[in-house]
Structures are given as structure tokens and as C-alpha cells.
Amino acid sequence: MLDQISTGPGLVATVAITVTLLVVAYLVRLNQLLLSTPDEIKKAAPQRWTEDLLRDTYRRLEADPITTRSYAARIPPKLDRRYIVTGGSGLVGGFIVLQLLERGQPPESIRIVDFRAPDRADMLQGAAAQVGFVKTDISSAEATGRAFAKPWHPSVARLPLTVFHTAAVIVPSDRSRLVSGFCDAVNVRGTRNVLDAARRTGADVLVSTTSASISIRPVELWVPPWRLWSKMSPRHYWQVQDDEDFFKPLRRHEEFYANYPASKALAERIVCSANSERLRTGCIRPANGVYGNPTDNTVGGALAMAVLPTWTSHIVQNFVHGINVAIAHFDFEAVLASSGSASLPQAGRPFVITDPNPPIRYRDMYHLVQTLSVSPSRLLPLQPIIMVLLSYPIEWYSLALVRFPVLRTVLPELTGEVKHLKPGIFSICTHLVASDDAARQPVRSGGLGHTGVLTTLEGMTQEVVEWNREHSNARKGERKSYKTSVSLADDIAKAAAVIESVAGS
């Protein structure tokens, strides 16, 4: 009996130490897997961006910058039509407006319908500054209807109407249905409102911007222990972004990595199912992430930080410049503008769009920013498993404030970048190779005949050229503040909350 008592605590300690060591070994090995790059992906991204390549590209683009005029020959020819661009103040919508003007559309034939007025530097001068703007919350059917029904200038009032629907909110990591209402209100209900308003005002072409993130499956963050030392990566650790999912039944909400792609998938089905002879429709899926202006989350977000915390340097992904995405909308419009096009294979379906080059590694983009930007920055490497472990309590905390509103009286809301560190974010921080094969097919073969005008190297370098120009007189380390799509979503959510509280009082 005495021997059993004396050995009891020792046995407990031994078991505790053994379990702790096993857990640590599991986490270390899982971290190794999350830092790995499968051989298939290495082959897909063969090129590295050397310092010489970056500086040569920078000198070329600094001397001969990319403007709408420099690629005007690639923009499909002008059509005698009117244009409503929802989200026209944003990244893709802004480039659509600029390209419309470049190909000869008069400013009075274009209307921006957006939550905010344009504030991009390239839209505050010349003909772009003359384009009409109607501040609108597309989640409101009444506001959307008024924006579409506003009278046009007599010189264009009788022209056919094309709607480019690019407006959306991006909430990158929320995945619980408890907080899906915001994405659903803007991305789903807003799309229905835009469709209804387009029909009522006689539009006959509508091309909507959705997202290639629709096809992404949630990554397997917790690998079964017996698979840890196999050669297999975590399930869905690398994926191909294509449009095959569109031709299958819509997946359940839990089979999307977050509320955002789930809402965009439903919106895409709404747009494509609306295709008819009276209103021909289709969707463009930009590969994530979209970049092309200091307001973007991809390059602009990196340029804006003196310290770049990251666990994704090894990650391989395709990116797409807003210029290439905008041109794809015109390629689609050219197909749908002719009567009888509703029965063509292109109508009522999505097409994935990406830059015309293989995917790159995030470290290439970081190397570009550190090599070329006048704003100094340094990388802060993070271990992915630490970030995964942190993401769960952050998500639980955020959802607790939603489930139990009384907690908000004593606990603060999370703000800044930390609020987005939730498990859903890791599914878009994995290896993603986009396939735009369908869009590149000739029109006669059912494609859009699309080819991008900018490679990722050119597009990202051009963005740094523009950043450096805007910061040429800034004090060392000083950075201008830009409104990104994610921060804009935060502003819209706050505005909606204020309106709701007033309405309920």
C-alpha cells in the first residue's frame, strides 16, 4: 500500500510529461507541414524574382509607366451604351471606369453607384472627375432603385444599358453563421437589388464580379496524428482555383472557408440564373488577391507597414491586377452585347481570371517591396502553428460578444488586424493555383478570348512606382493612409450598426 501511494504521484507526473511531449511533438511536426511547399506547387512556380530583375523592371516602368493609354489597344472597342458601375469607386470598379473613358465613352454615359465617393488619385482628375456618382447602400432595395432610376443626360438617355456589378464587402475570416448577416446583406441581398433595379431600368447586359475564392475548400488545420509523418500535406493545403464547382450543386455553408465566399457563391448563382434574352448575365471570378492600387490589401497592405508580420513567405499563389480583371468584364460584355447571346455557352456562367504568368511566392512580393519601396520595411517571420493556436480564442472571444451582447458593456471589441486572425483566414493562406483556361479560349470555342495585359511582376512593380511617386516628399518612414476594401467593410458595418440602433430606438 505504501509503495502504491509513493509511486502514484510519480506515475501521474510521468504521464503528464509524456502527454506534454507528445503534444509538443505533434505541434512541431504540424508546424513543419504548414511551412512546407509540395513538389507539385514548386514546379508551378519556377521563377524567383532576383534583385536585378526587380530593378530592371522598375527602371523600365518608371521611365514608361503603365497607363490606360499604354494598353488602350487591348481594351475592347467602344459600344454606344450607358454604364452603371456599382462599386465604381473601388479597385476593379475604378479600373472599369477609367477604361470606359479611355475607349471613348463620354463621362455623362457612366454612373458610379457606391457607398463612398471615389478617392483614388487616378480618379480625381481629368474625365474621371466628371463621372456621375450616386452614394448608395445596395443592401437597400429603395436606395438601389433610386440610384438606377436617376435621369440621364439627354444625349445618352436612350442608349442601351450595361451594368457592371463590382460592389461587395470583404470580411476575410468570419465563418460562423452568427455573423454572416453582414456579408449576406450586401453580397447576396445587394446583388438581388441590383438585378431587380437593372431589370426595371431596361438593362440588357449585366456582368458581376464574384471571386475565385468561391472554389476554395477549408484547409485541414489539424492533421490526424497517424498522418503526420507521411508525405501527404494537410488536406486542401494546396488547391486549384477554377470554375468546376459552379457546374455542381451549391455546397453547404460549412464547406466554404468563410462567410464571404459562401455569400459570393450564392450571389453568383443568382446572377447566372437570371440570364435571359432580355438581360444577358455572367460573372468574372478574379483570382485572389486582386491588387493594382495602394488601396488594395495585397501589395498596398504590405507597402503600408514598416514591419511585415508573416507566416506565408513560402506560400505560392496566383494574383490578378485590377486592370486585367476590368478588361475581362469588357471581354464578357462584348460577347453578351449582341442579341441572341443568352443562348451562347458563355452566358449565365463564371470565368476565372488571373495574371498571364505562373503563380509566385509571397516572398517574391515581400522582396519586391523591400527592394524597391522608398518606405523601409522589415519582415517579422511568424510560426504558423502559433497563429493557428491564437486564432481560436480570438474567434471564441468575438463570437461570445455576439452571443451575449451584455458582455460588450464590460469587454472591448477587437480592432485592427487582430480581429481577422481567425481559423478561416488560413484557408486563403495556403497554396492556390488559379486556372483561367476557360476564359482564354477563343470566343468561337466558348471562351472570352481573354489575355491579360500585365504580368504580376509588372503590375506589382508599377504599384511600387506609384507608391514611391506619392511618397517622394514624405519624411523617412512616413506613410500615407489608404482605405482598403477590408477597412471599408469595417466602415460599412459600423454605419449599418448605427442605422440599426437608430431605427430600433
From TrEMBL:
Family per record: Belongs to the NAD(P)-dependent epimerase/dehydratase family. Dihydroflavonol-4-reductase subfamily.
Domain annotation 3-beta hydroxysteroid dehydrogenase/isomerase: ranges: 84-214, 252-376
InterPro entries on file: 3Beta_OHSteriod_DH/Estase, NAD(P)-bd_dom_sf, NAD(P)_dehydrat-like
TM region(s), chain numbering: 6-28, 83-101
UniProt entry keywords in alphabetical sequence: Membrane, Oxidoreductase, Transmembrane, Transmembrane helix
GO aspect biological process, one term: ergosterol biosynthetic process
Lineage: Eukaryota, Fungi, Dikarya, Ascomycota, Pezizomycotina
GO molecular function: 3-beta-hydroxysteroid dehydrogenase [NAD(P)+]/C4-decarboxylase activity
Record's keyword annotation contains RNA-binding: no
GO CC terms of this entry: endoplasmic reticulum
Protein name: 3-beta hydroxysteroid dehydrogenase/isomerase domain-containing protein
